[in-house]
IS200/IS605 family transposase
Amino acid sequence: MTTRQHHAFFHDHGIAKRACSVMHEMDSMGASHTWCFVIMPDHCHWMLTLKGNASLSQTVRMFKGKSSRLAGLSLWQRGFHERALRRDEDLLPTARYVIANPLRTGLVSRLGDYPYWDAVWL
């Protein structure tokens, strides 16, 4: 998911932490099971399994709406890109790739130094 006009809203610690909390809240509400996520300055990656009756579009819309309301800003660009994993053995390598985004983009030299990510394997 990409922020509106690729603005780096998530350089703001408070906004980034609120977005992280909404991802956890989506799981608590029973809408999703999050495998991992990373909030980058101008976009995020979210690996999830849908739960309940909501579609992927509805779940993403709930996330975007709630995170924007908490930030008091219109954060998100319309739409999103999705990729379905077909094999369970692809889950962990894909999660490692997702979580390594802050390293690949040079935001940090150690993943542990980046505060806006989570994974169920921790």
About this structure: The longest strand covers residues 32-39. The mean pLDDT is 95. DSSP finds four helices and three strands in the chain. The two ends are 24 Å apart (CA to CA).
